[in-house]
Specification:
With 323 residues, the protein is an alpha/beta fold. It folds into 2 domains: 62 residues; 255 residues, 4-Layer Sandwich (Purple Acid Phosphatase, chain A, domain 2), CATH 3.60.21.10. 27% of the residues lie in helices and 23% in strands. Strands 1, 2, 3, 4, 5, 6, 7, 8, 9, 10, 11, 12, 13 and 14 form a 14-stranded mixed sheet that branches. β4, α5 and β5 form a beta-alpha-beta unit. About 4% of the residues have low confidence.
Length: 323
């Protein structure tokens, strides 16, 4: 964040209503938890309620409980599913900017009904089980957390008041696993669980939409034909991430068509997070998914995919769009 942190003032706390906790943390140089505690104290002292611009009901700092599966009912409209951002300090990836563009557009046109950050929003390379290959520099977990808090705040503002969820990804869970394995005595202490740092993002393993669309980070199969196999196993539409492949598969059953979707990745596939692939060709694409519902039924999923033949452009519904 740079520079010496300064005291969080009452004026700063009142400004949470406009720019959120992450905005005040960036302004003052204080960390996220310090701003949270200052806001708690302000509310207790003044009786004045501080609500973020994200439209969350109740206190912005209220903890969310971990849920196995979050059920949503969506009759008409759009749910955006994005994953595998692997946010690192520095300039945000291009597809993050594209995601903000589409979230704002769908929200302003009153089409957006939900946003799912479908896992691996963080990377946590420094606490991975895997060793360094070539002494490459890796960000500290605190740097990653601060960056991800800022990026997730931007996504929350862009998506507005619609429901949100964050199914855990294998990289996200490195944080909890590392503390559980190395500091068991700290169990339950505030800040030792990833969800403590992202209070407006309900954590879960999956989101089930209309009891017919299952959204989760990792599906039961990870092979070459994983999407089709997962649909056949689930017997319903299934949206997964993790493989970075960005594909849609249609499976025809006696009862009708089912869709399987891999959401691709928000991270730049040539980024420093992926040095471990040793410059090998990979079947990855920078993309996210748009799920549109009509009368409660899922229409064929659409992907917003980076268009590599022009700068700052994506392809959506066969149209090249400049961001």
């Amino acid at each position: 964040m740079g520079g010496q942190p300064r005291k969080v003032t009452d004026a700063d706390i009142r400004d949470i209503r406009h720019i959120g906790i992450a905005g005040i943390a960036k302004r003052t140089g204080a960390n996220y938890r310090t701003v949270q505690r200052a806001a708690d104290g302000y509310e207790a002292r003044t009786g004045e309620r501080i609500v973020s611009p994200l439209g969350a009901s109740g206190h912005i700092m209220q903890r969310v409980s971990e849920t196995h599966r979050i059920p949503w009912e969506i009759r008409d409209g759009i749910v955006v599913v994005a994953s595998d951002a692997h946010y690192w300090p520095g300039k945000p990836p291009f597809m993050h900017k594209a995601l903000l563009h589409f979230l704002n557009d769908f929200r302003q046109r009153k089409l957006l009904r939900g946003f799912i950050a479908n896992g691996d929003m963080l990377d946590f390379a420094a606490i991975s089980r895997f060793p360094l290959i070539n002494w490459e520099k890796q960000p500290e977990p605190q740097e990653e957390l601060e960056t991800c808090i800022d990026r997730m705040h931007e996504l929350a503002v862009a998506s507005g008041r619609v429901p949100k969820a964050w199914p855990g990804g294998n990289h996200d869970l490195r944080f909890n696993r590392y503390i559980a394995e190395n500091a068991k005595a700290l169990r339950g202490v505030a800040g030792t669980h990833l969800k403590d740092h992202f209070p407006v993002w309900p954590p879960c393993w999956s989101v089930m939409i209309n009891e017919s669309v299952h959204v989760k980070h990792i599906g039961p199969s990870q092979g070459e034909n994983a999407i089709r196999i997962n649909v056949n196993k689930a017997g319903i539409h299934i949206v997964t991430s993790h493989k970075h492949a960005a594909n849609v598969v249609q499976v025809t059953k006696m009862t009708g068509d089912l869709y399987g979707c891999d959401t691709g990745c928000i991270a730049e596939i040539s980024g420093p997070q992926f040095l471990y692939v040793q410059d090998n060709v990979r079947d990855w694409r920078e993309a996210f998914a748009v799920l549109q519902f009509s009368n409660g039924r899922l229409l064929p999923p659409q992907l917003v995919t980076r268009w590599l033949h022009a700068p700052n452009a994506v392809v959506y519904c066969n149209e090249v769009i400049r961001i």
